[in-house]
Amino acid sequence: MGLKLARTKELDAVIGQNIRNIRTRGGITQESLGVSLGITFQQIQKYEKGTNRVSAAALIHFQAVLGCELKDFFAGIDIDGVKNENPVMSDDAVKVSMVVNAMPTWKQTLVLALTRQVDKIESDTPE
């Protein structure tokens, strides 16, 4: 039983977004990742956008360079009714993570405390 084309493209896009999230959290540019993998940054862009499908062999190389687990590439994908529970970060969440990661530990602690307080605030304004 094969996957429908639309579902396949959706999976390619999620895997690409996960690659992007992992790469940016690590502070790695598309260019430096491409150099490490022996491919162009344009190819990295195509993988991250889901335009080009990432082969299983390529995922193994990505995993080695990015220092993550293979399952991290499948975060947010529902396979046979079981969803990989690793959260998929939005672009803004990735940006915030990168900024906070560059801060000294004492500032990170303050940001975390502030974030927890903000999360507790009940608001009547819609998102």
Compact summary:
With 127 residues, this protein is mostly helical.
Sequence-ordered SSE layout with sheet pairings:
Blueprint: H1 5-25, H2 30-37, H3 41-49, H4 56-66, E1 78-79, E2 82-83, H5 91-101, H6 105-120
Antiparallel strand pairs: 1-2
SS summary, helix count = 6
Order of strands across the widest beta sheet? 1-2
Please estimate the helix content: 55-70%
For the biggest sheet, the summary is: 2 strands, antiparallel
Descriptive report:
The chain is mainly α and 127 residues long. The protein is 60% helix and 3% strand. It has a two-stranded antiparallel sheet. Strand 1 and strand 2 (82-83) form a beta hairpin. The model has no long low-confidence stretch (mean pLDDT 83).
Describe the structure using short key phrases.
60% helix; 127 residues; 6 helices; mainly alpha; two-stranded antiparallel ribbon; globular
